Amino acid sequence: MGDIKVSARTLLQDLATGRAVEQCYHSDARWWGSHPLNEKNGVEAIADVWRQLRRALPDMERRNSILVAGECKGDERTSMAVEGRPLVASFCHYQGTFCRPFLSVLPTHGVVHLRSCEVHRLVNGKIAHSWVLFDLLDLIRQTGRWPLAPSLGAEGMWPAPATLDGAVNGVDPAQGKTSLELVLEMQKALHDFDGIRIESMPLEHYWTQNFQYYAASGIGMTRRLYGFRVHHQIPFLNGFPDRRGAGHYVRIGDGNFAVTGGWPSVTCTHLGEWLGLPASGKTVNMRVMDFYRLENNRIAENWVPIDILHILWQLGYDVLGRLGHACGNPATELRRKSG
Question: Residue 293 sits in which domain range?
Answer without folding.
Answer: 2-326
